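Re: the 778-residue chain
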Amino acid sequence: MKTAIASKLLKVEGLRNEVSINVDHWGVPHIRAENLHDLFFAQGWNAARDRLWQIDLARKRGLGLLSRDFGPGYLEQDRASRLFLYRGDMAAEWRAYGPDAEEICAAFTEGINAYIDACDRGFIQLPPEFAVLGNRPDRWKAEDVVRIRTHCLVMNASSELMRSRVMTLAGQKLGAKLDVLRKGLSHGVTPTPVEGFNPAVMTDRVLRDYALAVTAVSFSKERLACTMEEADRWTVVASTGEVARSAFEQGSNNWAISAERTTTGRPILALDPHRTHTLPSIRYLVHLTMPGLDVIGAGEPTAPGISMGHNGTAAFALTIFNADQEDMYVYETAPDDPDSYAYDGGFLQMHVIPDVIPVKGYPDQTVQLKFTRHGPVVFQDPKQSRAFAVRTVLTDAGKAPYMASLAVMRATTHQQYTRSLEGWGAPAVNHIYADTSNTITWRPSGAIPVRENWDGLLPVPGDGRFEWKGYICPSKGPSEINPPRGFVATANAMNIPEDWSKSNPAVGYEWSDHSRHDTLHYELAQDKLVSLEDCMRLQCSTFSPIADRIIKAVSRLFEGVEIDSIWDLLRNWNGDLAAGSIPGALFEVWLSKHLGPLLARHDGADSHIIPLLMPFHSPSIAKWLENAAPDRKLTEGLKSSLVAAWTECSTLMGEDVTSWSWGRLHRLHLRHPLQSLVAEDWSLEPVERGGSGSALNYATYRASDFSVTAGPSVRMIIDVGNWDESLFINNPGQAGVPDSAHYADLISSWSRGEYKPLAYSTAKVDDVTAVKIILSPD
C-alpha cells in the first residue's frame, strides 16, 4: 500500500509561477516548473534545503572567505584560493557556456539566496553546523558558480614536482627509472629536463600554496583559536607524497552498450564516478522538469543542471581523461626587483593585485597576489632570484568545471551532443553517450594544451621558449561512434588509438591503472547479452587484475625454489579482493608496504628516496616482476618481504589467520568535518570495503592505515528508452543535514551493492513520492 504523502506549501519571493518538488523515498527531488527561471531557481532553493552548509563552505573556500568567518588559521588558505580564481572577462566566460548560462546561474543563486532569506526570517531553521561555528551563510552571486575552480580535477603540476624531487635525490638517469615505480608513463617516454631547468630548484615549498588552494577545509579547536601571530603555521596540507597522490586517486568507470548486445533490446549506459569520499557526498541527484526539458541525474550541489544522467532521449556520462592540463614554470628574477622576471631576452613585470582579506577578530589583511603571463605565482625565492608559477587551463575563460553540461544535458541527437562538447573545458573527461536511436559514442573532451617542444612531465623555464600553442581542436580529437564490438567503455586508462597519437599532439603520458579498463572490455566482449543485473555486478566487482598478474609473475620467479608455507595462502588465490578475503588482506599489505620498497631498493633506491615513490604504482610493480629474470637476491628479497607482510598482518589482526579479512583493515570512515567540535555523533560507523584501485569497485586507501579514501559515491545504470527501469545509489545519502532522514539512509544499500529505482515518468515519480513541497510565488 502506498504510504501517505507529506505535503508542504511555502511562499517564496522571486518565483514567477508555482513549482513542485516531489522528494521520493530515497531523497531524490523531482522538480517541476513552468519556465527556465523557476526551474533553476527551485534547483538552487532545493540545493540549499539539503546541502546549505556544504555549499556555503565550498563557496567560502573557493572565494577565499574562510578567515572572515573562522579566524587567522584560515588566512593562508584564503590567500592561496584567491590565486586560482577566474579573473578574466566575464562576458567571454558566460558566452562559452551558451546563451542562457548566465540566466541559469542567476536563477540558481537567487534560489539559494531565497532559502537563506527564509532562514534569516526564522521561517526555516539553519543546519546545526552554523550554530556550532557561530557564523551565517552568505548570499551568492551568479559569477560565484563559475569563478571558483579549485575543486576541479586537473593534472599534473604535483607530479612534476615529485618527479623533480626524485631526480634530484637519485640523479637524472636513476631518478627517471625509479620514478616509474611511482607513476608509470605511456608511449615509452623518458622524462628529461629541458635546457635551463635544474630539478634541484623544486623544493617541497614550491607547491605549498597550490596544495592549500585545492585541499578541503579542516576544523579543530586549535585552528579556530589560532591568533594572527600563528597564522603562518596553518599552511601544511600533508607530506609532499600525499599531495602528489591526491590528483591521481580520482577515477571512474563508464560504459554504453548497443541494443544488439543487451537483454533489454535497448542500449544500457552505466556510470560510477569516483572521487574522494566525503560526508555529505560530493554528488547529488536531482530531476529537473519543465516544458521542453526533462533531465535526471547527478552533479555537484554547487552548480545548476546535471553532468551525468539522461534527458528522456539520450543518456550521458563521464570519467576523467588524463590529459595534462597544467605546467610548472620556473623564472629567473631580477636581483634588484623580485617582481621582474626574464622573458624573451628581456624582463617582464609580474601583475600584482593587492587584495584585502577580512579576518575574524582582527583588522582586514592586505595580501599581494602575483601573476606572470602564465599564471599565479605560487612561490618566490628572492635570495636565489627565482619564482615559480602554475599554468593551468582553469584560469582561462570557459573552463569552469562541468559548466558545459548545461548544453550536454539538453542534447537529444548525436549531432547536438557533439556540438555541445566543443565547449567543454575542464576537467578533461571521457564522455560517453547512448540514445533511443541506438547510437552510442565515446568522445574525450576538454581543453588540451599543445606543447610543441617539451613533454609536460617536468617544470620548464618561463623565459618564453616553452609556450602552449593553443588547445587541440575539439572536432579533431579522437572519438568512436557505434563501434563493431557493440560497446564503449572507459576507466581512466590510456585509450587513445595509436593511429591518432601518431599524427596529433600528445595528450598526456600519466594515466591510471589500466586494470579496470581491461576488466570492462573483457567482460563486455563476452559472447552473451548484457543485462542491467550484469552491470550492477560489474560496478560492484572486487576482482583485481593486478593481484592476478603479480601472483603469476612471482610464481614464475619462485619456480624450483623452496618457499615458506605463507605463499600457499596466495598461490591459488583467485585475485578477488572481497571484504571477507583472507589472502586479499595479506596481498594488499604486501603490495602497499613491502613489495614496492623491495623493487625500488633492487633498482638502487636509497631509503630517503622510497617515501617519495609511495604509494607505488601497482601496474609498474606488476610489469617489473613480469619482466624480471630469476635471481637469487630478488627471490630471497621476495620471500623476506612476504614474511614481513605476514608479520604485519599478525600484528594488525592477530595470530589467528582465520580471523583475518581485507575489510578489517580496509574500511571507509565517513567523518563529519565538525565531529571534533560537537558532542553529538554526526559521523558514521566505519564500513568494511573490498576492492582497491585496480578493481571496478574502486577503493583506494592510505598506505599508512589502509583507510579507504576514494571511490564511487553515486552509481547509475540507465535503461535507455525504458527510463523507469533505471537504477541508482548515492552514498551515504542525499541530504547533508545530520538530523535528516536522508543523511545516511543509503550507506548500507551502497555497501551491499543494492540499487534504488531512478523514477522518471510522472506516474512513477508520483508513485514513489514521500514528501511534496509546493513553492508558491509570494
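Residues 36-63 form the longest helix (28 residues).
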